[in-house]
């Protein structure tokens, strides 16, 4: 468990370092008015599927996002990736509970497989956003669209095993709540990626 946590922390640290490097190159040390950054995020989030959640998760990163369509899409993907990892860890612990009904445990194992695929799709998307240049925007954005759309599909499949009367309402409500948040974050990230792509269409 400690090794897995260290690897996840290292992944997160590498993403932050890559993002800071990109900011240094893109803005050359120029200072952006914080109010201007906040307004940019609010305006960008207005086109997201879930605007309130978008603002809630991204306004705290205004100094990093500044006024960059690429950086806000990157931040949205990274926030989603972190949330999926956190939810997956919680569900792994819950699935190992001896008190969990067998049918719920089986459904959770299926769900965890889908979430593992989601993590991989989002991880590739975050890395790809770091690599985008003016000369390769089209193909890379296409890849990101494909991966994020796949993540949304995985999240939808995750809840399939919890359908029917054989699963308690408490279990369904709790798990669906977690997955719904992830799905909303993923949908917002996809919308911001699409907005970025439209600027270079």
Automatic annotation (TrEMBL):
Acyltransferase listed as a keyword: no
UniProt entry tagged with the keyword Membrane: no
Matching Pfam families: PMEI
Cross-referenced SMART domains: PMEI
Highest taxon in the source lineage: Eukaryota
Domain Pectinesterase inhibitor intervals: 36-192
Segment forming the signal sequence: 1-28
A molecular-function term among this protein's GO annotations: enzyme inhibitor activity
Annotated keywords: Signal
Protein family: Belongs to the PMEI family.
PANTHER family reported in the protein's UniProt record: PECTINESTERASE INHIBITOR-LIKE (PTHR31080), PLANT INVERTASE_PECTIN METHYLESTERASE INHIBITOR SUPERFAMILY PROTEIN (PTHR31080:SF117)
Name of the protein described by the UniProt record: Pectinesterase inhibitor domain-containing protein
Lineage start: Eukaryota, Viridiplantae, Streptophyta, Embryophyta, Tracheophyta
């Amino acid at each position: 468990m400690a090794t897995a946590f260290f690897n996840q922390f290292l992944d997160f640290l590498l993403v932050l370092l890559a993002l800071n490097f990109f900011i240094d190159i893109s803005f050359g040390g120029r200072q952006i008015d914080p109010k201007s950054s906040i307004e940019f995020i609010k305006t960008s989030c207005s086109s997201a599927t879930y605007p309130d959640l978008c603002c809630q998760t991204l306004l705290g990163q205004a100094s990093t996002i500044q006024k960059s369509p690429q950086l806000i899409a990157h931040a949205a993907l990274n926030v989603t990736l972190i949330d999926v990892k956190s939810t997956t860890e919680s569900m792994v612990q819950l699935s190992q509970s001896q008190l969990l009904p067998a049918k719920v445990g089986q459904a959770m194992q299926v769900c965890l497989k889908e979430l593992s695929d989601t993590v991989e799709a989002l991880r590739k998307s975050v890395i790809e956003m770091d690599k985008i240049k003016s000369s390769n925007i089209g193909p890379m954005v296409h890849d990101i669209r494909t991966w994020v759309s796949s993540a949304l599909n995985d999240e939808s499949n995750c809840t399939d095993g919890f359908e029917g009367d054989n699963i308690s309402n408490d279990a369904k409500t709790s798990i669906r709540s977690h997955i719904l948040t992830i799905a909303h974050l993923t949908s917002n990230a996809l919308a911001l990626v699409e907005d970025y792509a439209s600027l270079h269409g």
